[in-house]
Fold:
Amino acid sequence: MKPKAASRGVRVATPLSDEDQGRLLAGAHHDPHGLLGVHPVRGGLLFRVLRPYAKSVTVLGKGLRTTLHPEGDGLFAGVLPLRKIPDYELLVEYDDNTLTVRDPYCFLPALGELDLHLLGEGRHEQLWHALGARTMDHQGVTGTRFTLWAPNALGVRVVGNFNYWDGTAFPMRSLGSSGIWELFLPGIGEGELYKFEITRPDGSRTVRADPMARRTECPPANASVVDESHYRWKDAAWMAQRGERPVHEAPLSVYEVHLPSWRPGLTYRQLAMQLPSYVKDLGFTHVELMPVSEHPFGGSWGYQVTGFYAPTARMGTPDDFRFLIDALHRAGIGVLMDWVPAHFPRDDWALAEFDGRPLYEHGDPARAAHPDWGTLEFDYGRTEVRNFLVANAVYWCEEFHIDGLRVDAVASMLYLDYSREDGGWTPNVHGGRENLDAVAFLQEMNATVYRRCPGVVTIAEESTAWDGVTRATHHVGPGGFGGLGFGLKWNMGWMHDSLVYVSKEPVHRKYHHGEMTFSMIYAYSENYVLPISHDEVVHGKRSLVSKMPGDWWQQRANHRAYLGYMWAHPGKQLLFMGQEFAQGAEWAESHGPDWWLLDPSYEAESDHRGVRDLVRDLNLRYAATPALWERDTDPAGFSWIDGDAGEDNVFSFLRFAADGAPLIAVTNFSPVVRHAYRLGAPDHIPAWREVLNTDDPRYGGSGVANPDVLKAEPTPWNGRATSIAPVLPPLATIWLRPV
Structure:
């Protein structure tokens, strides 16, 4: 088509080719900045703007006011007789509105070469600074840079409330082979809602939330939110001291919390007024938060994540979440967080087939589909996916001062045949069942977190006998693998075996005695946490106290005895909310713990308060007794007194501090009082005193106790030269220390 004659000094521009115009309008062009914005041409500068629905577009600058020629389909263009690109704005007139805006297509890329290099190498350890939405000043203009990894896309456009969710005028440019798309939008700031409209390889379109969004709308809404933190931390003292003592040589007693239901309806900031004081009063050293990353379905409890970089908006903003963590730290409470890198849900606005092909998930459908949860597994062998997850672990520790990550479902990551039938999986290159990509990912994640974040601990929920979960990554084990590099591992075997034992009637427990002693055979193979977690008090498994046999008094007595045994056993402790006061009902996320059980007007309130008082005393005694934690991973820190008293349902053992200071723990899992029950004792200790008794009337017990000093007698017993003969209360644990 022959250009029309120029008017008012503006020549008509040579129109775009049909191909370029078609791809641009279809959202399938890789280089919109090459078509839009300002470009030198013969005789001046070519200005081209894409503004659908606009009546006119005028270029404004110093001494410049020129209206561009309409080209149809929302395109406006003109050649101005200028030699130098001016500092200009666009006056865009619509039927009912006129806007003055900066032209997004006159800016150079806002992502640096170093960022692109690190992204290409898969080594960008602060990925959130490079990808996602980031407010900034760019070329002297304030706005937001949007960046997205979508290597299979034909084109990507930004949509949001600022453009009425029509991205036609906001196509992003491809930054070469990196697979990164970028667009700087001037004037866009915090609080704006946005998504990415992706044109897939087949030409169809999908609208997706930002995988790197640091804030989201409150579910069920799912848009991403432009956000920057303005929080000023006040926990410098905590952060400075948290790494002074290795975690496996320190007291660690964890209260597991589901934040949305701990006190339903409270915000992060309201929780900060209650949770720290409650946890501190009970003496726990840490809280463990069930996943707080954004998730669409509350009934998943956070374990099906769609926003890996965003705290759930259900209780407030990311800075509100920082406020809660800060409050916990200032109360002396560490914060662990469940982290879920094993899988993600299939929601069509999230990660699944993100840019039209498998991207975050494995390309092999058999390896991508998680057989148990209807979700998708990450492709740990893909450089960018591994980077996404490793950086995510660092993100929570650096940006939110998280003190530890409990990594969910590690076993499902480690084994190619996890929950798969014969023939439903493909062996690795060595013919084995190990997922070598997942092993390498976990090793890199742990090594990176420990290097970057002093004092942080990583904890594996791993339910198999994988060798070296808590071994250093550079120490190769007998299986030929380096350690996974975790700091601690949940002892799922102890949890299962011990709960089987205590659920039996006392008359039958002698037949299951070995289930309680078996844990000491492998106790030092890893650095363990003893968990009574949320998984054990839902879905028909009953609450902890309800697992116990007998009448209500016996159930509570068993509950107390079990906790006393657990706190004395080698390993750290974890207790899920509600179990600290013997809640009888299973937990449900819809209403949380049954706090009414602690209401003084409730006639059985003292029964529940007594158990909570015991938990407080267990924690206080535990923290003050190095024998219970200082040598948790050293076999010299433990010795059976009598591990074979199955006929009596009695377990007795010694714990030792680094300086040799001992503690005797004895648990009588029978409902009868055992008078003058003789136990071998170290011959250099002349006398012992009872420092804890779960049968104390203050806890709801019967009051059978050892009020007097227990003097050692020269009566050989249990292979020792001296012995003591305490009374053992029914269904109770006692702790004894040297006088």
In short: The first helix runs from residue 18 to 25.
